[in-house]
Amino acid sequence: MRFDLTANRFVDEHLRAEAWAVVGSDRALRWHELAAQAREWVERARAHGFAQDVPLMVRGHKEASFFVAMVGALLLGAPFVPVDTIYPDERMERIARALGAQIYFDAQSDRFLTVSGKHAITDPAMFVPRSLRERNLAYVLFTSGTTGEPKGVQIGRESVADLAKWMTEDFTLGDTPVFLNQAPFSFDLSMYEVFGTLATGGTVVLASRALAAHGGGLLGKLAQYGVTTWVSTPSFAQQQLLDLRFSQTELPLLNTFLFCGEVLSVELVRQLRQRFPAARIINTYGPTEATVATTWIVVDDTVLGKYERLPVGYAKRGAKVFVDAGEICIAGAHVMRGYLNRDDLNAARMFMCDGQRAFRTGDLGAVDGDRLLFCHGRIDDQIKFGGYRIELSEIDAALCALQGVSSAAAVALRRPDGRVMRIVAFVATGSAEGTLPGALLDWRAQLAVRLPSYMVPSELLTYESLPVSANFKTDRARLVQDYRNHHFKSSFQANA
Ligand code: AMP
């Protein structure tokens, strides 16, 4: 049994109906149970006014119910909007405002709730469902936005069908792969496993933060369900290496590591090959705006021996990747339909190329004579920290909203290999350098109301005023230099 993403329905319902479909933090569902519960969920969503093209926020963290709701939304034709509980309430409310949504599905309690107040719904007729201008979307995923507002990436159904086709035809994952799903559903990397599982009739094991934490039992659970396909950011795999049991002996069926989202280092590949001699390692690259990934390469011995910094691969079939004035551009059916309500950004970043949607990524890159793509970092202040995509200006905006702060800059401190170690905040308060005004004593808690934990800086330093560069922008490079000289004499490198 599987879910046909083009026909938008379950097919081959008599085949392997008893096989596991989704192993959640709350319960595990077999394929026939997934189908039955998704259909029942559609009726509940309809009763709450949801219909085709009406966006449906799903909030939770790794429950089987979260997965049921995403499949139900696909059946209903309502774009799902995944919001992990790592996002604070305030961020969820901003997302709801952008969507015009008053009700969301809470996967933890398995109920539909009001966005304001989180009450159970007594009279659904009181809420007016609002459909999106874009039709036939599969999902809308909100990523960090430079203005301080998260931006909604609208992904069409044609794009997820394209993703599933690529995964089933080219990745050789086996007939019914068993995926590890670790990234939150609000991070598009997780859509690999959602659509990979649905398209193949495989299984997905959802790893909650508690399960994935040290001593949380992740390896045991993965072994129990016979995981074959590891999907994560390189950062997460790197963390797992600290556990010596993370090896082929513990996970004998694991045959593929599928990476995306940040730089994959030669060092990590080498370590994984020692622990998992039988597994293939695939590096993939792409922004959320182009449905999970666009390029791919199997990092075998030849690739490993040839490059000090690994390439991010070749364009998938049907996609076009090229470099324009140093910037990587992507065209194809998998490129988003645009950011929600952001015509300004759409005009700046999207264009048509040979009759297909195209997107300027903001990544610096180069393509060699064999059409192999290399990614050389960002043009702007977007960073990756522990695998999470962050606009430093979004943190700036949250810092500026703190009482008594007149200007602010968040800065990423990097290791010599370029990986971000931590984020430090610099704020101008008008008072003498180094004094923390009373209103800022609980700055961490204040920021956590608005930002997810991974965006809250680890340190906050106060200045009378912040240095500006020649174009009157805050000089982040100088702040890093200052930090290195005065606060942390080490080998951190500037982000700028
Ligand atoms: P996200 O939208 O969270 O998937 O982040 C997309 C960004 O992550 C890209 O624009 C790149 O800057 C970076 N990225 C994604 N995959 C890779 C990769 N394989 N190697 C290097 N950077 C990557």
Give the SSE layout.
Blueprint: E1 2-4, E2 9-11, E3 20-23, E4 28-30, H1 31-47, E5 56-60, H2 64-76, E6 80-84, H3 89-99, E7 103-106, E8 111-114, E9 137-143, E10 151-156, H4 157-170, E11 178-181, H5 191-200, E12 203-206, H6 209-212, H7 218-224, E13 229-232, H8 234-240, E14 256-259, H9 266-275, E15 280-285, E16 295-298, H10 301-306, E17 314-315, E18 320-324, E19 327-331, E20 338-339, H11 343-349, E21 350-353, E22 356-367, E23 373-378, E24 382-385, E25 388-391, H12 392-400, E26 407-414, E27 420-428, H13 443-450, E28 459-463, H14 476-486
Parallel strand pairs: 3-12, 5-6, 5-7, 11-12, 11-13, 13-14, 14-15, 27-28
Antiparallel strand pairs: 1-2, 3-4, 7-8, 9-10, 10-20, 15-16, 16-17, 18-19, 19-22, 21-22, 22-23, 24-25, 26-27
Helix pairs in contact: 1-2, 4-5
Write up this protein.
- This protein has 14 helices and 28 strands.
- The protein is α/β, with parallel strands linked by helices.
- It is globular.
- Helix 1 (31-47) crosses helix 2.
- Bound molecules: adenosine monophosphate (AMP).
- The site of adenosine monophosphate has 18 residues, from strand 15, strand 22 and strand 23.
CATH T-level topology of the largest domain: Rossmann fold
How many separate domains make up the residues? 2
The dominant shape is globular
In the predicted model, the low-confidence regions spanning at least 5 consecutive residues are: 489-496
Secondary structure tally, helices: 14
The biggest beta sheet reads: 9 strands, mixed
Under CATH, the homologous superfamily of the largest domain reads ANL, N-terminal domain
Span between termini: 50 Å
Q: Please indicate the percent range of residues in DSSP E strands (runs of 2 or more).
A: 25-35%
CATH architecture of the largest domain: 3-Layer(aba) Sandwich
SS-derived structural category: alpha/beta
What is the helix content?
A: 25-40%
**What's the alpha carbon Rg, rounded to whole Å?**
23 Å
The top-level CATH class of the largest domain is Alpha Beta
